[in-house]
UniProtKB/TrEMBL annotation:
Record PANTHER family: ALPHA-1,4-GLUCAN-PROTEIN SYNTHASE, UDP-ARABINOSE MUTASE
Catalytic activity from the UniProt record: UDP-beta-L-arabinofuranose = UDP-beta-L-arabinopyranose
Site residues (Required for activity), renumbered to this chain: R151, R158
Entry keywords, A to Z: Cell wall biogenesis/degradation, Glycoprotein, Golgi apparatus, Isomerase
Enzymatic class: isomerase
Protein name: UDP-arabinopyranose mutase
Keyword Cytoplasm: no
The protein's Enzyme Commission number: 5.4.99.30
Taxonomic source organism: Handroanthus impetiginosus
Similarity remark: Belongs to the RGP family.
Amino acid sequence: MAASKSSTPLLKDELDIVIPTIRNLDFLEMWRPFFQPYHLIIVQDGDPSKVIKVPDGFDYELYNRNDINKILGPKANCISFKDSACRCFGYMVSKKKYIFTIDDDCFVAKDPTGKEINALEQHIKNLLSPSTPFFFNTLYDPYRDGTDFVRGYPFSLREGVPTAVSHGLWLNIPDYDAPTQLVKPLERNTRYVDTVMTIPKGTLFPMCGMNLAFNRELIGPAMYFGLMGDGQPIGRYDDMWAGWCTKVICDHLGLGVKTGLPYIWHSKASNPFVNLKKEYKGIYWQEELIPFFQSLTLPKDCTTVQKCYIEISKQVKLKLGKVDDYFNKLADAMLKWIEAWDELNPSGASTGVPNGPAK
């Protein structure tokens, strides 16, 4: 039995579901009660001549590599090939305010009472309630039912700030890197923690793209999943890169990032030996990347996401280019991404927040 739904699904006409895939989307059958009212953007990776089957009754558009090349022309090489990072093309072509993205090996999870979890509905609740990045509430998200701000929480900060990102978690197969997968091959996450929290300002986090939602109008241009996969020396760091850039920009513009609920059921672990090959450079590069992002400051005149992102690309070239030439290529791709974003989204070309950066 599917969980009950309200008669009008939340944000029905304001949200796109973006799915990267190389296979038939049979997994949508189990999500039908929750996803069917929404528009899907499917980004087909790999061989564009392969026919991807989508179950009947879903409203969707499907883009393959030929479509990406046709729509973006010379800028198409900023979209990764043979890597789930290709999903960010879906963010670019969407015309909706919100995006939910999910992998095709993510199934409907159940809460401890056995009720099916409507992950999309929980993400929407997260995005529609404020965040509290400037002062931590020890009862976690004070805007959820049954909780509030604790004693000692400044009243001047209780309005919170707009939530730009909702980062969900996974039951069953945790999102581990290859070395951890290799030493803990049988580990499964069975802990359901009924919590949502705002990640504090100045704190980075490892963002996973397989169960993620965001406000496209507030932060969309920063959700670039980098140059990964075919022809690149690194993979499986696409969502990490987007997460680090996004968090720095959210901190600068006074926006919030939530993590915790909702859970999905991550059905299968990817091959740790294949993953190790993809992650190898990233595992040691990240020891330079994290300090880079931790010390990154954006000037006050960076009042839009695009301006912030262009500034980050300059800093990447300046400070990370010496780590490896790959980062020079990545910095150039970041600029192409922003140019392509603004060409496809001319009315929203100055994405940002009305009040500019937080003081």
